[in-house]
Amino acid sequence: MNDLGAAAATALNLVLTADPAVAQIVLLSLRVSFSALLIAALIGLPLGALLAVARFPGRGVILTVLNALMGLPPVVAGLLIYLLLSRSGPLGHLGLLFTPGAMIIAQAVLITPILAALSRQVLEGLWEEYAEQLRSFGAGPARAVPTLLWDGRFALLTVLLAGFGRACAEVGAVMVVGGNIEGFTRVMTTAIALETSAGNLPLALALGMVLMSIVLVVNALAQASRDFATRAGV
Amino acid sequence: MFRRLFLAAAAAALLLPGAASAQERFITVASTTSTEQSGLFRHILPIFTAESGITVRVVALGTGQALDVGRRGDADVVFVHDRAAEERFVAEGFGGPRRHVMFNDFVIVGPAADPARVAGLRDTNDALRRVAQARAPFISRGDRSGTHAAELRLWQLAGVDPATGRGQWYREVGQGMGPALNTAAAQNAYVLTDRGTWLSFRNRQELRILVEGDARLFNQYGVMLVNAQRHPHVKVADGQRFIDWILSPAGQRAIASYQINGEQLFFPNATQPEPTS
């Protein structure tokens, strides 16, 4: 109980004083997770829409694999990317290991299946409603995908938030491929793991509270923009 | 509106990565959790960076893992504390030569209630035998770190095979020093730790230093450059500059000046001749 109180006080203090070290860690966390979300969205959403409209042999297998990949353990993803990006690995010449770039790749790999699988689910329902209408315009899957993505944008926002949440909360993969280097690849979750290691539990929990507040703000902003857009009839 | 918002957010996310990737001169050092978590690097690295203009990126792992990072060519310098493993690394041609940098010591910490009655002992053989005899919970790092190697050596010297108590009183956590100390604190167990991590560790609960001062608890740190013949991208000049600095009087003074609560954590010994045996 005492620890919880101390953690809340520390968290408040970190936010109010805008502690520069913490601010840098927060900014890096956001930068990495938003970049990963963007990459994952560019791949995952069209893939999800395509799977929602198209019927082809092997589709069932792809869906099963995507669903299974949603449960990919972050440490395993991290390890695979580590071996790929290591100087002794096939992509070693890029020099990406232990950089924010490697962390973005790791998070994107983790959340792309989530975005694809969830958006498929969401858009399939929508497609059932629209299919006939779209077909009557002579629209094939290639035309249907952008239309579907646009019409499903509000539902997809929730899908994006789920992906962002997973990216932000992830620690195993970014620890392995980022190396938790102070001032360079240290993000909220790895900082929390480090402070826990140092036995500094109130500070670790305080950082956790800061992280949760940020995720809350991001979600609130998304919700507000959706409300605004709905009201404006966009 | 919505589309524009999304595009703006997307553009911002794309632009942001460029912001912090300014060209800087840096080297990557694979080191141990004890040097990082004790706060030593935070104390000495700014001094080196100010002098040389080279930023040092520290990846803190167990010694075994840190040497593996060096083997794969993912670091320029390795700075660790398991002499036998380091000499193997050099002998295999992955880097070197290995140089002494500093030392501190290990201590055995355990619950204040001390069920194995080891408090105040100096002889680690005696202490570990008592722990085994009492079947008192003992936390092992179990992660191929320098501290883990030292612990296994101490058991061997004591003539005890802790593996017989595996899963019962001998518990291998396979994690860093901090998590091992957290576990020991939660289970009122004994654990071997380097003094630096112990001094900076906050969640001690009932844990106290019970055994210290045995010469067997000596903990030597070494530094070596990764072999550029195996990994051509290794930053030989800047990496060597870091090694030269940390072995120089300025670097050694920086190490000696690091204290927690008035207690010095690491003792520089680069100037002492290397024992040849």
In words, what does this structure look like?
The complex is a heterodimer of chains A (234) and B (277). Chain A has 234 residues and is mainly alpha-helical. Chain A has a single domain (21-188), classed as MetI-like fold (Orthogonal Bundle). Chain A has helices spanning 2-16, 20-53, 59-69, 74-85, 100-136, 141-151, 153-169, 172-178, 188-197, 201-232. The N and C termini of chain A lie far apart (48 Å). The model of chain A has no long low-confidence stretch (mean pLDDT 90). In chain B, helix 7 links the parallel strand 5 and strand 6 (170-172). In chain B, strands 1, 2, 3, 4, 5, 6, 7, 8, 9 and 12 form a ten-stranded mixed beta sheet that branches. Chain B has a two-stranded antiparallel sheet with strand order 10-11. The radius of gyration of chain B is 21 Å and the shape is globular. Residues 17-21 of chain B have low confidence and may be disordered. Chain B is 42% helix and 22% strand. Chain B has eleven helices and twelve strands. Chain B folds into two domains: 27-103 and 219-268, Periplasmic binding protein-like II (D-Maltodextrin-Binding Protein, domain 2, 3-Layer(aba) Sandwich); 104-217, Periplasmic binding protein-like II (D-Maltodextrin-Binding Protein, domain 2), CATH 3.40.190.10. The N and C termini of chain B lie far apart (75 Å). Chain B has helices at residues 2-20, 33-37, 40-52, 63-71, 83-91, 124-134, 146-158, 177-187, 195-200, 236-247, 249-256, and strands at residues 26-32, 55-61, 77-80, 99-111, 138-140, 170-172, 190-194, 207-211, 218-225, 259-260, 263-264, 267-268. Chain B has 277 residues and is of the alpha/beta class. Chains A and B meet through helix 2, helix 5, helix 9 and helix 10 of A and helix 1, strand 2 and helix 8 of B.
